[in-house]
Design goal:
420 residues, alpha+beta, eight-stranded mixed beta sheet, 39% helix, binds adenosine monophosphate
Length: 420
């Protein structure tokens, strides 16, 4: 049996957990400040949900989803490869729209895609995302872009870049698809193998191929802006003017498309240079048809997903994170074997009063216990021996200045509480 974590997954060890918590707590705070409320959905869902939402002709549905098998055979369940579909499913299943149509929701948690692992790309990864369901207002598109940028800003990540595009509605997309096929058809033989395959299946994806040759070849592609219908043009114009009015810097990228079929109108991505080839920190956009496609009423919706692992990589590159010093306040040292049970009760007493305290459980010598207290960065060491117990006192050493003092046992809690 292999004792290694599966390829493309990672353990988050105690030294690394604090940066994860910092990122997650910042997300919760910033998302809530913008009026978003947390929603939690199951890790697995009926597979059909993703086929219907993400789209059959996408990499995720074609080859990246993990199906579940039980002892009695395969099930129809899939480990979630993204969360938008799950959130919309929950929104409809629980009739959240009947209570209040416009709902602003956020989530965080793990996702699963069977991709080729590399830096910034794993098979189990985590996302922090928002979904604003029930509005066609282009201001909501700008709200969530501003929210994602505010989150990176609050974390201290510098140098992230917002790229936006509009991919129109199905009506404009049909016209654009025809035009794109006509132009790219002329240079099809210069495209990479994957893109030649994509030509019939999902021609839009050719536009965001990272292959250098494809990037050059696709320069001849027409701009989607020329094919947008009046409604989509107007929507995108409001998005752009609102971004400008609010001094939110962005780049219009006519090659930006997203890997899901459900997007309509605005799409965006936030990238960071430190990430190498997998440089997207966040992807999002509007998906005005998804709720109806999943059986709900027609309504506008928009959202984004931020990759937690990549956010942590960008945060470390920005050198903006100070690891938190997890220290215990009091380390209780047992002078001999007989006093260990008294030490144990004393540690319990401190903890019950919310004073972080610990002791040795490995039978260490007095000296080794002092060294351990030092390594744990304890602020105070309390020494308990038969003498102290008999006299009802404790000896306290302040580890910052080495000063020692004696206190009556009854005064100890008050003393530590007064010492911040
Ligand atoms: P997507 O759901 O594909 O739009 O991705 C949204 C964000 O999730 C991306 O911008 C990445 O930051 C992150 N992400 C997507 N796929 C992976 C992966 N396989 N490993 C790590 N992060 C990922």
């Amino acid at each position: 049996m292999s004792l290694k974590a599966p390829a493309g997954t990672q353990d988050i060890l105690p030294d690394d957990v604090s940066i994860w918590r910092y990122v997650e707590e910042t997300a919760r705070r910033v998302f809530q400040d913008y009026g978003y409320r947390e929603i939690r959905t199951p890790i697995f869902e009926e597979g059909g949900l993703f086929n219907r939402s993400i789209g059959e002709a996408t990499d995720i549905v074609e080859k990246e989803m993990y199906g579940l098998t039980t002892k009695s055979g395969p099930t129809s369940f899939i480990l979630r490869p993204e969360l938008t579909a799950s959130v919309v499913r929950a929104y409809l299943e629980h009739n959240l729209h009947k209570d209040k149509k416009f709902q602003k929701l956020y989530y965080l948690g793990p996702l699963f895609r069977h991709e080729r692992p590399q830096k910034g790309r794993t098979r189990q990864f985590h996302q922090l995302g928002v979904e604003a369901l029930g509005s066609y207002d282009p201001l909501v598109d700008v709200e969530i872009m501003g929210l994602a940028l505010a989150f990176f800003n609050q974390l201290g990540i510098k140098g992230s870049e917002l790229k936006i595009n509009s991919i129109g509605c199905p009506k404009c997309r049909d016209a654009y698809r025809t035009a794109l096929k006509e132009e790219l058809g002329k240079v099809k033989s210069d495209l990479c193998e994957k893109c030649r395959e994509r030509f019939d299946r999902n021609v839009f994806r050719i536009l965001d191929c990272k292959n250098r040759q494809c990037c050059v070849t696709t320069k001849c592609a027409p701009s989607v802006k020329e094919y947008l219908c009046a409604d989509c043009t107007e929507h995108f114009a409001v998005v752009e003017s609102t971004l400008k009015e609010n001094n939110i810097k962005y780049i219009f990228d006519q090659h930006l498309v997203r890997g899901f079929d459900y997007y309509t109108k605005t799409v965006f991505e936030i990238t960071h240079d430190s990430l190498g080839s997998q440089n997207a920190l966040c992807g999002g956009g509007r998906y005005d048809n998804l709720v109806a496609e999943l059986g709900g009423p027609a309504m506008g919706a928009t959202g984004f997903a931020i990759g937690t692992e990549r956010t942590i990589l960008a945060l470390m590159a920005s050198q903006a994170y100070q690891p938190e010093n997890v220290t215990i306040k009091v380390f209780v040292v047992a002078v001999d074997e007989q006093t260990r049970s008294d030490c144990f009760s004393f540690v319990r007493e401190l903890r019950e009063q919310d004073i972080p305290a610990d002791m040795d459980y490995e039978g260490k010598s007095l000296k080794a216990q002092m060294r351990l207290a030092d390594r744990l960065k304890a602020k105070y060491v309390v020494v308990l021996g038969p003498q102290e117990i008999k006299q009802g006192i404790v000896r306290i050493k302040d580890m910052a200045d080495g000063q020692e003092k004696e206190l009556k046992r009854l005064e100890v809690i008050k003393y530590f509480k007064s010492k911040g």
